[in-house]
Amino acid sequence: MIQIIENASLKKLNSFGMEVQAKYLAAVHSSVDILELLDTICQQNEKPSQTPLVLGGGSNILFTKNYDGWVIKNELKGIELIAEDDDHVYIKAGAGENWHHFVINAIAHNWAGVENLALIPGMVGASPMQNIGAYGVEIKDVFHCLEAVHIKEQRTQLFYKNDCAFGYRDSVFKQAYKNEFVITSVTYRLNKKPVFHTKYGAIEEALEKMQVQTLHIKAIADAVIHIRNSKLPDPSITGNAGSFFKNPTISKMAFMELQKQFPAIIGYPVGDDQIKLAAGWLIEAAGWKGFRRGDVGCHHAQALILVNLRNASGQDVYQLSEDIRASVEEKFAVQLEREVNII
Ligand code: FAD
Ligand code: EPU
Q1: 85-94 pLDDT per residue, tens
Q2: pLDDT tens digit sequence for 13-26
Q3: Domains along the chain?
Q4: If 235 and its partner were Cys, which of 15, 114, 119, 214 is the partner (CB 3.0–4.6 Å)?
Q5: Residues near ligand 1 with C-beta < 6 Å?
Q6: Mean pLDDT computed over 100-118
Q7: Which residues pair with 55 in a beta bridge?
Q8: Nearest 5 degrees, angle CA 97-CA 103-CA 105?
Q9: What is residue 103's predicted lDDT score, i.e. its pLDDT?
Q10: How far apart, in whole angstroms, are the C-alpha atoms of residue 167 and residue 257?
């Protein structure tokens, strides 16, 4: 029996800590639960104005209003080795497994590939949604397949890597199939022999400080955890959803023009003629780092992160993001695209 709560508070279910309500909230623990719930929703006479919203850990969402519809809290658990060959293990995880717990479990078994993605908040089911990434690794690098239930047609579909259109913080589930599927499990292909990624950011420096003699995946995860803890706000203390915007990409020509005016501007080559700019640098250079307006602010150590310092509303955060976008566009003629899902 699925428990359904009417007019449920979502405050504890989103990392911004926004006090909003869902018309209906239901937690699902199995694929059978999902099919049963979708059936109930279909048969419901009173039709809410919004399609069902699937919620994992709520760490990449900004609620700007109450949700006049069904919120489905994904609680599907389980981590299982389903196949292996000489070099790889195939690990299937329930969409409602905590992502960091999944990483720690992989490291404990010596399965390599996700150690650079330690401490990213949220659930397994959301990991392919925006192709989560950090410290030189993205989910697409270890993704094998996922199972999902089509919300309207109530059928199960299997998606392999080529079906997912993974891009930088992007997938088919944020584009053509937006709000169409409930992801129920994800299968990752992890390595028996580790390939270390230590070149990105401050990993090497952190490893040196830790005096690591023989490199291993746990040391990399520890280094990443150390770096993340030193600059990212903890959502259990300060409401946030990580990077609010994506790092924008511009042409090499446009970058060289900007460099003339702003010699310190930070950019990384992407392919032959594109440059990915550090949005955090642009926002800081536009004067927003540490900015505070009432209870909403721009984090003092990482300008790309907008924070709810106490009782800010989703509208307050959204308005600040609009103001930041306008000022970055005015100063650098660069448009920032939001990474966080706005509801
Ligand atoms: P939610 O916020 O619950 O949902 C995100 C989106 O996915 C929503 O549109 C939701 O409807 C949909 N969704 C969720 N689960 C399912 C499902 N099972 N089926 C269908 N749709 C679903 N992200 C990075 O990529 N890299 C980082 O380094 C990073 N660092 C962060 C640091 C902090 C402090 C915070 C707060 C966030 C960070 N994030 C980062 C963003 C966030 O953690 C990830 O996007 C994460 O994958 C979101 O997981 P979630 O379960 O909380 O998703
Ligand atoms: N920077 C500034 N000022 C700031 C913030 C950053 O000048 O206020 C500069 C830094 O000094 C650095 C560069 O910008 O030279 C990049 O900063 P950082 O290494 O902190 O990474 P980021 O580009 O801001 C991205 C991801 C993060 C991910 C880290 C590590 C995006 C949108 N964000 O942040 O992902 O954890 O790299 O790989 O791509 C998320 O998606 O929510 C997220 C946190």
Answers
A1: 999 999 999 9
A2: 999 999 999 999 99
A3: 4-74 (3.30.43.10), 79-231 (3.30.465.10), 239-342 (3.90.78.10)
A4: 15
A5: 15, 53-61, 74, 95, 120-123, 125-127, 129-130, 132-134, 181-183, 232, 235, 240-242, 341
A6: 98
A7: 73
A8: 80
A9: 98
A10: 27
